[in-house]
Structure formats: structure tokens, C-alpha cells
């Protein structure tokens, strides 16, 4: 049966993950069950929060084409529902769908701050470049109630540990009281993801994320508070948000952004069929053009996972896109290099409840 969009969700189905051992097929039993199931699937599923006590909170980066060493993700899954999210396939490891489950079954690591404090207090720990929100948005809606991200930031600030945050949520403004003093020491920076200035496109591309103007306002408020802030124009999708590259950079620079970076669309594992289904639902008139251009930039394939090329693409169209980005960024005075990370101010914390001698 043809899929229809679900209001407020990026995916239209809880598609099976790649480790699924059982295949299911709908069968008409003569009682109108298929029609009834189709109607039920169109009802917006409610978000479920699954509490988890994590064994560890710091993840090490082993990828040579990524500029940070450690990451913190207080949540698994993300209610923003961005259809292009490269982290969707990680829900497969939980025996959950990278489709609707990724958006509706959010795992909250309720002991994140506790585990972080323990990790930083370990004598074996050496401070390194750290980013919050690499495989989830640390400021997705549930953060307003749980405050797991803020609790982690409090630990990092107390230890004078440098960090960066990547988000597309204006909710980060809540933590300016922590971020601004830390930034004054040269220990904090933020990157806001602005994928499009078109409200209609943003609403279906990133259904529960902040509106474009609200993200620009967050850039402005962070900048005015003295927090170094950059803009991520990622992912760039040919013929959808790609025509907006220059306008997004201009708007971000006007709001106070001082740096910028960009990554072309990636379609790893289950993201590929999910994205192509989304294309057919929302842009059937240009779906083939979009995918043809994606393949032009990915060596003829839907996705290229090779280090070095996966974050940049390859070929004529990828290079032209990067040239446009570089030219616009240079014209606006936006840095493309990451700020050097100051690790010298780190103060090792003591584990809560233990004396300094231990």
C-alpha cells in the first residue's frame, strides 16, 4: 500500500531494521483489516521515554575524518525526526526501527552526569576535544523536563573541561548561564544547524525541530552573550536546500555566527530507503533528479562510506558545491577551521561522595 505522511513525524513507517530475522507481510482477511491498519498507522504515534542507566557516557571517536576525540550523547534517538539523520541506523542495535521508533522511542541515560563525573575523575583520563550531541540532539524536547544535558554541562564546567555543542534547538538558550562564563575562559563553542530558511521545507524535513528564524535568533543570543557560535549547513541536499547555501550563510553571519561548515547528504544503511520514501512522498516531481545528483557525488552509488570522501563527496558536482560554500564563507568572513582546544585548564573532579584522598 502506498505510504502517507504522518503529521509531526519524518518517517511514515516503522520499517524493519537490518538485523531483523522475521519478515512480515500484510494479508487481506476479508474483514477490512488492511484498511483499518492503514488508518491506525496514519495516527501520529506518541513519544515514549525509555530510562536507561548507562554503563558509560563518553564515546571515543575512531574516525580519522572527524575533528573531535570524545562525544557525549545523553539520549538515543531523537524526536526532531530529521529524515536524513545519519544516526537512525543506531536504533537497529536496540532491536528498534530506524524509522518511526527512532523518533518515538527515546532512550534517556538518566545517570549521564554521574557517569561523566566518574570518567573525568579517573586517574587514567586525559582531557581531549569533546562534542555534545553527535548522534542525537542533546536539546530535543524531552531535555526540557529531564535536564540530562544541563547536568553534564555542569560537570564539564566545574572541571573546566573544553567542549562544543551541535544542535538545531533554540533550547540551548536555557543554559547560557553556564555556557557564557565557560566561553569567557575559551572553553566552549556552539554550532547551530540551519538546514533551510524555508519554513515549509524545514517543517517536513525536520518536523519537530525549531523553526529556521528561531535558530537564527539562538545564534544571535549566543553571540551576544559572548559564546563563539558557528553554523552548520548540513546536510546539503541537491535541488532541495542546496540552492540556499549562500542565503543561509548570509543570514547566519548577520545573526552573529563566526564560523561555518557543511556536509553533503549521507545515506548510510536504513537512512537510504527512508529518505527515498520521503522524497517520493513530498517531492515526487524531482525525486529522480535528487538521487541522480547524489549518486554523481558518491561515485555512482547512493552512499559512500569511505573515510575521506564520506564527509565531502567527490566529483564535479561535489567540488562545485564546496567552491560555492568556500566563496560565500570567505566573503562573509566566516572561519572554516575549528578553534584550537585549550586542555590546560582541566581540573580533575573528585567522585561524588568520596574524599579527595581517593
Automatic annotation (TrEMBL):
PROSITE patterns: RADICAL_SAM. Keywords: Iron, Iron-sulfur, Metal-binding. This is PA0069 family radical SAM protein. Pfam families: Radical_SAM. It comes from Roseateles paludis. It comes from the Bacteria. SMART domains: Elp3. Residues 62-301 form the Radical SAM core domain. InterPro entries: Elp3/MiaA/NifB-like_rSAM, MJ0683-like, rSAM, rSAM_sf.
Amino acid at each position: 500500500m502506498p505510504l502517507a505522511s504522518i503529521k509531526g513525524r519524518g518517517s511514515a513507517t516503522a520499517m524493519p531494521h537490518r538485523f531483523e530475522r522475521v519478515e512480515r507481510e500484510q494479508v487481506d482477511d476479508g474483514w477490512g483489516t488492511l484498511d483499518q491498519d492503514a488508518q491506525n498507522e496514519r495516527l501520529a504515534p506518541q513519544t515514549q521515554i525509555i530510562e536507561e542507566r548507562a554503563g558509560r557516557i563518553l564515546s571515543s571517536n575512531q574516525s580519522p575524518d572527524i575533528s573531535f576525540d570524545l562525544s557525549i550523547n545523553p539520549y538515543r534517538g531523537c524526536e526532531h525526526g530529521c529524515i536524513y539523520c545519519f544516526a537512525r541506523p543506531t536504533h537497529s542495535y536496540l532491536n528498534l526501527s530506524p524509522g518511526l521508533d527512532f523518533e518515538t522511542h527515546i532512550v534517556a541515560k538518566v545517570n549521564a552526569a554521574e557517569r561523566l563525573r566518574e570518567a573525568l575523575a579517573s586517574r587514567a583520563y586525559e582531557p581531549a576535544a569533546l562534542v555534545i550531541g553527535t548522534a542525537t540532539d542533546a536539546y530535543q524536547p524531552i531535555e526540557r523536563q529531564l535536564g540530562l544535558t544541563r547536568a553534564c554541562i555542569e560537570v564539564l564546567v566545574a572541571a573546566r573541561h573544553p567542549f562544543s555543542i551541535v544542535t538545531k534547538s533554540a533550547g540551548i538558550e536555557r543554559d547560557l548561564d553556564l555556557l557564557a562564563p565557560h566561553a569567557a575562559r575559551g572553553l566552549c563553542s556552539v554550532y547551530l544547524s540551519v538546514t533551510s530558511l524555508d519554513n515549509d521545507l524545514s517543517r517536513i524535513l525536520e518536523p519537530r525541530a525549531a523553526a529556521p528564524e528561531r535558530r537564527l535568533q539562538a545564534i544571535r543570543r549566543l553571540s551576544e552573550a559572548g559564546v563563539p557560535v558557528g553554523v552548520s549547513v548540513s546536510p546539503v541536499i541537491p535541488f532541495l536546500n542546496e540552492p540556499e547555501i549562500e542565503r543561509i550563510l548570509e543570514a547566519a553571519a548577520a545573526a552573529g555566527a563566526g564560523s561555518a561548515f557543511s556536509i553533503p547528504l549521507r545515506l548510510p544503511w536504513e537512512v537510504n530507503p527512508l529518505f527515498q520514501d520521503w522524497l517520493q512522498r513530498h517531492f515526487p516531481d524531482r525525486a529522480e533528479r535528487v538521487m541522480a545528483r547524489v549518486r554523481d557525488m558518491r561515485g555512482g552509488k547512493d552512499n559512500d562510506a569511505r573515510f575521506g570522501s564520506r564527509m565531502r563527496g567527490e566529483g564535479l558536482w561535489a567540488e562545485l558545491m564546496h567552491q560555492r560554500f568556500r566563496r560565500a564563507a570567505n566573503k562573509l568572513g566566516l572561519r572554516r577551521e575549528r578553534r584550537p582546544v585549550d586542555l590546560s585548564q582541566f581540573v580533575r573532579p573528585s567522585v561524588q561522595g568520596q574524599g579527595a584522598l581517593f
